[in-house]
Amino acid sequence: MNTATIRTKNYQGADGDAAAALLTKAAQTIEAVATEQKEMKAKHGEILARLQETEQKLARDDGYGAAAPTNAGRMQFKSITESESFEHFRQRRMDRSERYSLPLSIKALLTDTGDPDTANGLYPGRVERLPGLHGYAMRPLRLLDVLTAVPQTTGTFEYVRISASGGAEVQDGEGDEKAPMRFDGELVTGRVATIAVHTTCSAQVLDDDTQLQAELSRILAHSVVAKIEQQLIVGSGTGLHIEGLHTAATAIATSPDSIVDRLGTAIVAMETDGHSPNVILLNPTDWFTVQTMKSADARYLFGNPAAPAAPTLWNRAIITNPNVPAGTAVIGDTAQTEVRDRMQPTVFLSRDHLDYRTRNLVLILVEARLGLAIFNESAFRRVDLGSLT
Description:
The chain is of the alpha+beta class.
């Protein structure tokens, strides 16, 4: 018999029934509070056990030979468990603890690797792939910009190169013979050269990386155009090789002791012969020699390092190209030459090369076909700069 039951015996009538009901409700409330305290105690014990287990896991080795996490890995649990607020929570003076702000960023929590000599990262971070392919140097290519290109429909071409003697004169008198002019013609045959390069790539890789094909094609095309420039400048003209401008140019004697003056002298001589030279081909080292020329008081003559001079001399465009032999220059009248364009640099893709289809490979080929017609070899003059560089 409980306390409420014993005490109700002293009351009679309606008052006694009311008192008994109140005492019964109080007893039920006491029992509910006791039950709740037991549950809270069990929860507190569970929370403390989980915190201790977590702290122990972070403090010991990860089981794979990695060192214990650094400050970011331990997350400073010690400072949390020793705080006054957490102590009140543990002694059940508070139904919840206050919030704790860890002095770490989310990035540090996920990617901290501690000592760089150890492998103790908690979570691998996402790596950002930079677009494009890198590490292949592609120098500017400018020679084709100053040459006239004409479509070519066959693999060979012919043209007549003439030389003349004599010219117009004033007639001496009535009945006297007028001045003659004689021509000699030479039939010149040129051939179209094929310049190409290719590489092999996995079909699956090309499918996975949508930009890879374009990047590889761009690099291969640059390689083809660079070889075209090399042939247009110093091609030997033997076999199927193009006869380059430097190879075909006529040497011209100049005597001034300055690169600039020698080039000016050659330009005047060409103009005297009726040509209109508009371009000068130089090796980059020789152009740099010109750029660094100084006066007697050590002042730069052509611009300065902060504001270099434009690539022109005597109002003629300067085209620098490493294929021009150092110590020489070519001065030319580009109206006296044509690039015979049979096929511009074109990209081809094929899976039928050899056994590429069964091996899931792709051939990427870039090819160009062209020739060079030099109508007048004296329209291009080779100047010796060797003693001045």
